[in-house]
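task queued by scheduler; priority normal; single chain, no ligands, no partner chains; default sampling; output format set to structure tokens
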Amino acid sequence: MSLFSVLSIGASGMEAQRTRAELLTENLANAETTRTPEGGPYRRKDAVFQSTEIGSPFASVFHSELEGASGVAVSDIVTDTRDPDRRYMPGHPDADADGYVAFPRINPAEDMVDLMGAVRGYEANIAAISAVKDMIGRSLDLLK
């Protein structure tokens, strides 16, 4: 595996973690949303990761073989299909005939922990890319 393919793997991980972080922040922002254009409360969304073949943009320049290197990609975004939480709030504009309002099934503490994990995953990919960049730089210095 070439150093340049490692850069592509790190970039794929960063892209996947960015998508995950965007979904988690959307979930947190809509934790109290009781009405959406689709009707009903907001539905929580999660990213599903999958191993995927990566293509190195440097492969054509260096004619290197990737030897089956795989990165990560978001294969699907799933929407929570569970019934929403129901809270008794008879004065709320979205209350049903019994006075209950449907709220999204979002646990802000859980989503914050997941968001911290996504940030740590993103940072780990940055560290790997930085290490490869330093190795390439030192290799070029040796060839001077």
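post-processing summary
- DSSP finds three helices and four strands in the chain.
- The CA atoms of residues 49 and 74 lie 5 Å apart.
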